[in-house]
Amino acid sequence: MQESNVDLLIIGAGPSGLMCANALAGRGFNVRVVDKRAVGVVAGQADGIQPRTHEILQSYGLMERLLREGVEIHRNAFYNPGPSGGIERIERTAAISQPTARYPFTMCRHQGGTENFFIDAMRPKGLEVERSTVPTVLELSADSGSSELRDPAAHPVKFQVVLQHLDRTENDREVVHAKFVLGTDGAHSWVRKAMGIKMDGGHTEFVWGVVDFFPDTDFPDIRARTVIHSVHGSILVVPREGDLVRLYVQLSDVDLKLVDKQTNRVDKGQASPEKLIETAAKILQPYYLRAFGDVQWWTVYIIGQRVAEKFSVEDRILIAGDACHTHSPKAGQGMNASMGDTHNLAWKLAYVLRGWADMSLLRTYEAERRKFAQDLIEFDKVWSTLFSGKPRTAQHDDGVTHEATLGAFRKFGGFSSGIGIRYATSIIVDNKHQDCASKLIVGERMIPHVFIHTADAKPVNIHDLLPADTRFKIVVFVADVTTDVGAVPLRGLAERLTAESSFLRRFGHGNHLDVFDILCITSAERDKVDYTDVPEVFRSHWSKVLVDDVDYAGRSGGGGFATYGIDPKSGAIVVVRPDGYVGTVAPLDRVEDIDAYFSGFML
Ligand SMILES: Cc1cc2nc3c(=O)[nH]c(=O)nc-3n(C[C@H](O)[C@H](O)[C@H](O)COP(=O)(O)OP(=O)(O)OC[C@H]3O[C@@H](n4cnc5c(N)ncnc54)[C@H](O)[C@@H]3O)c2cc1C
């Protein structure tokens, strides 16, 4: 059999596997991505993309394409049974309730379309998905804790994957010796099962149908994300690309016989898209609903709410995405949670593979993302029950009220948009000096804000200066550098940062700019300061020096120190992780605490 060595073998090229592959493509790693499908997803499956995922896609330069190809959803609408037996609108709200979201709307793009963003971005960097390929053997038989397993540069001898190429008749098998394996092979993950990782949780009794079609209707909220409770059942309307619409239709108790009680799988053969649209039309009364032309995609499924008991084996085999967690799709979390997992993991793998960080850094992946998955299941339990429960009527006084649905929507807005995700304190989340940037919560993603380039006065969102390029960003906020109030502490900080003992020198691996990007933001006035006014270490390029002032048009910029809760006289150092989350903050004269932060996991 043919044999090969790789740094990372990714099994499964869905959103989760592709996010990781693209993050590491072209960065000097030997990565392979295999998938059993002969072709990618062409329609349907996951579609909702949430505000935090927009920001993540932007950090890889992919958001413009989503804006071009996807549909923006700005409004939610809620309907309940009305007095005449049909439905009536109770309320309209903004689709997103998070004021700091850079893109304050959700979007839809079908899963295959989103996967293509990554596939097309990877291709010029020399990475393609190898299709019609499955693993048949996955062996990790080295002793736990052996020095071989603890050395990230080693291809452990007793660690191998046998791949089978389904499209070949000869030489269809090969042995791959991988330093790391990532199983992103979906809800029925082969990798997870091969490693004997159990799923905690179970299945609900809610059976739902999903149908994508072009509607002919007089329903006025067909272009809003609309939750409808009626005496005939519930549906969720999701506007899709162009004039396409997706309906999630709750199937009646009669349809529960479609479920195989042994496997918890639904017999799709007994359902049909026509029946789903017919059920939806009944729920939508007094409005009419028919389909124009052929249905684009449809499916029927039962909701499982489960989380894997662990996300890795010996830090060598990791699983992510649906392989680790499944939940209902109605809050539009599937793709988001899955891409969020591997966005969190990719830079950690990069640091370990480069020998820059200890293997223990990988443990923070499971700690951060398993907690998130557990919270997701708890949220999903509340959300699914509100969705699938009967509405409160005179006959059902214990039914679901509109207030409960709306209350949950507001309560969980931070979580479901992804904006409010906060990682707990760990070796990479240190909130010791939280007070010096009181509104920039350590463990949460950096808040977007517009600052002005000192050199050319161009307004720029700070997120665009924090690309997911695997570097830590050291953002120094300082008082007016044209006066001693700012200039003196900044000079002191420059001396401290360039000293031998500084983290820049100790963990810079010969060229600190490979590991750390440094930005400097001053409270000086736009037209009174030059980028050359700051010491050299803060201006590796003119674009790294910014002011917290308004632009010439007076439309953007200014108020950044206040937004972040940083005293303009004292300033602060903000460490942003490569995935855009605030790792730690410290006063300008506490560089030793930043040194200690990096000493906790860097080599
Ligand atoms: C039929 C179906 C319908 C869905 N409908 C919805 C929906 O309506 N709304 C919603 O939000 N979410 C839906 N989902 C879930 C959504 O697709 C996932 O939450 C999301 O795509 C998770 O991304 P992932 O990369 O973790 O897994 P997936 O997207 O499942 O990707 C896994 C990849 O691994 C590959 N693979 C699987 N086994 C192997 C193997 N042994 N060897 C090699 N490759 C393998 C698969 O071909 C696939 O490309 C649906 C999923 C499925 C399967």
From TrEMBL:
Domain FAD-binding residues, every copy: 6-379
Annotated InterPro entries: FAD-bd, FAD/NAD-bd_sf, Phe_hydrox_C_dim_dom, PHOX_C_sf, RIFMO-like, Thioredoxin-like_sf
CDD domains assigned: PHOX_C
GO MF entries: FAD binding; oxidoreductase activity, acting on paired donors, with incorporation or reduction of molecular oxygen, NAD(P)H as one donor, and incorporation of one atom of oxygen
Stretches assigned to the Phenol hydroxylase-like C-terminal dimerisation domain: 421-602
The entry's keywords: FAD, Flavoprotein, Oxidoreductase
PANTHER family: MONOOXYGENASE, PUTATIVE (AFU_ORTHOLOGUE AFUA_6G03030)-RELATED (PTHR43004:SF15), TRK SYSTEM POTASSIUM UPTAKE PROTEIN (PTHR43004)
Family label: Belongs to the PheA/TfdB FAD monooxygenase family.
Protein name: FAD binding domain-containing protein
Organism: Lentinus brumalis
